[in-house]
Every structure is written in C-alpha cells, then in structure tokens.
C-alpha cells in the first residue's frame, strides 16, 4: 500500500516543480535578511526533546475513533499523560485533527493530519496554489498584502472556530496560557495557520508555539514576517532531501518561515539561519539540490516515521 502512495506523491511533487520551471529565478527581494550568521549544531538533548512533538504529529494521521480514547499504539503510548478532549475530520474533505491538554508541559495541543494521497479532496487542497488574503474575520487586523496558499487557508477555515472554542475552554479549565500547534506536511501548513490564528484570537498574554514537520511553504514574504513576529517559538523540522519544504517555489512568491531544524542524518541536526536559507549546504534548499528523495518526507525523524501508514 505504501509504495503506490509514495509513487503518487513523488509524481505530485515534481508536477508542481515542473509547472514552474519556466518562471524566472526568484529575485533577491524574496529572500529575507538572515537572522544569524551561522548555523548551529543541535545537542542530543535538544533532539530528544522533539520526540513527543513528533509523536503528536504521527498520531494526527490516526482516525478520530482511536485518537479519542488516546489508544493509537506507539504514538499515544509515547505521551501517556496527554488528555484528548476533541477530535474531528474525515481525513478527506476535512483533515483529521485533535485538541487536548498535556499536563507535563502545561500546554494545550492542537494537531492536524497531513495529506493522505489516497484521498482526492486532500490532494486538491495541496494543488489549490493561488494566493489569497487571510479571512479578515479569522485573522483580524492582518494587512491584505499578506497572502497565503488558497487551499491551505480554506482547509484551515473549516475547523478554526470549533478548535478555538475548545482551546479557550481548556485554557480556562486548566488555568494555562500556552498552546502548541503541531502537524506534518499539509498538517504542518495547517498548524502554521492555526498558530497565527490562535495568537490573534486568544487573550493577551497567551504564548503559542509551533512545531511542524516537512511543511510546505504557506504564504508570501509578508506572511513569513507575520509568523516570525507572532510565533517566535517556532520549530520547522525538515528531513534530509525531502523536497516538500521547498514547494511551492520561491519564484511563485512563496517563502518559508524561520526556525528550520534540518536533520542531516540520524542523530545530527542543525538549526538554520534566516527564513529560507539557500546558502548553507546543511539546510534544506541546498541539501535537496537536484536530487530530492521523496521518501525522506515520511522520515525517519529521529527514528520516528510520520504518515498514513505509520499512525500507530
């Protein structure tokens, strides 16, 4: 089952790349100024600390009926104190999602499923690339010059309010002021939108953290700047030669956000400078180069695979 899904995914990725190869190279204005001068090697302790978040992203691919009881095998067992309170989605027209409270970190967790390429609507969400301004009702005060991927924005809007209501309820119930948005692939794009949405709609003083895996680019330069300001604690994990984090292309006006943690090989990862570094050989753009490996999209992320075939 996995082989045909990955074959279709490989075809999808390179169809997207191939449709824009005739476009001019991105101008330097699309690349934001680097925040730090050099990349930093992550310690073993820092890498180990990512494991629970990876398991949350993995669990988001499991159907709501098993996530509801937090009985999704290895992924759920790895974070035994988590208390799931809301699940939803059908994995097709609406991606799976769940919300709950993580006592050991005193944070509300919101997780979104990534693309299951066996599901048509999810595929079409990824392919709906044209820019649009974020919904002014969901993203109050955001300048209309900020643009995001239409398909990602429309998918996020389907569940935004029900998730917001549950997050608000849990924050009151547990007297916490921290929220963490997590996701892989399309789920990572939704988590990025979720994190900004929550930061704009939750009470002042709320801290929102983002943790994403293999996330595609979500918006334009101004969107990237907005994410960088609103979500300063953001970890964008990328794996080896996975091509998904470099699509849609920068020549189309898209730009990644900062916070890249690039897994170069098992037990060795680096924190990359700036938003979308194209100069460091150990960061995604140059690592992928002309020889991407779509299998790297599912992992392993420090020994953990994420995707529809690995939810348990």
UniProtKB/TrEMBL annotation:
Leader sequence segment: 1-22
**What Pfam families does the database record attribute to this sequence?**
Lipase_3
Q: Does the keyword Signal apply?
A: yes
Which chemical reaction does it catalyze? a monoacylglycerol + H2O = glycerol + a fatty acid + H(+); a diacylglycerol + H2O = a monoacylglycerol + a fatty acid + H(+)
The answer, when asked if Signal is one of the entry's keywords, is: yes
Please report the stretch or stretches of sequence annotated as the Fungal lipase-type domain. Answer: 109-250
Sorted alphabetically, the keyword list is: Disulfide bond, Signal
GO biological processes: lipid metabolic process
Q: Which CDD domains match?
A: Lipase_3
Similarity comment: family membership: Belongs to the AB hydrolase superfamily. Lipase family. Class 3 subfamily.
What this protein is called in its record is Fungal lipase-type domain-containing protein
- Which organism is the protein's source? Scleroderma citrinum Foug A
């Amino acid at each position: 089952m996995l082989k045909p899904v990955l074959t279709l995914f490989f075809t999808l990725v390179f169809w997207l790349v191939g449709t824009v190869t005739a476009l001019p190279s991105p101008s330097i204005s699309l690349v934001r100024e680097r925040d730090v001068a050099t990349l930093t090697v992550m310690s073993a302790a820092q890498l180990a600390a990512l494991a629970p978040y990876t398991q949350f992203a993995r669990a988001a691919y499991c159907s709501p009926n098993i996530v509801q009881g937090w009985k999704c095998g290895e992924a759920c067992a790895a974070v035994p104190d988590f208390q799931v309170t809301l699940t939803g989605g059908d994995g097709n027209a609406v991606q799976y999602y769940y919300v709950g409270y993580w006592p050991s970190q005193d944070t509300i967790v919101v997780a979104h499923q990534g693309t299951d390429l066996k599901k048509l609507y999810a595929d079409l969400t990824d392919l709906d690339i044209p820019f649009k301004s974020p919904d002014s009702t969901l993203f109050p005060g955001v300048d209309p010059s900020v643009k995001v991927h239409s398909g990602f924005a429309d998918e996020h809007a389907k569940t935004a309010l029900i998730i917001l209501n549950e997050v608000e309820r849990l924050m009151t119930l547990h007297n916490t002021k921290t929220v963490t948005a997590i996701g892989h692939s399309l789920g990572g794009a939704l988590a990025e939108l979720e994190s900004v949405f929550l930061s704009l709609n939750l009470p002042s003083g709320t801290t929102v953290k983002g943790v994403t895996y293999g996330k595609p680019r979500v918006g334009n330069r101004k969107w990237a700047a907005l994410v960088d300001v609103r979500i300063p604690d953001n970890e964008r994990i990328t794996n080896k030669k996975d091509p998904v984090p470099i699509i849609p292309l920068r020549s189309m006006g898209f730009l990644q956000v900062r916070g890249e943690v690039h897994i170069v090989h098992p037990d060795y990862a680096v924190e990359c400078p700036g938003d979308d570094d194209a100069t460091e050989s150990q960061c995604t753009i140059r690592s992928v180069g002309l020889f991407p490996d779509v299998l790297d999209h599912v992992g392993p992320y420090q020994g953990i695979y994420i995707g529809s075939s690995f939810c348990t």
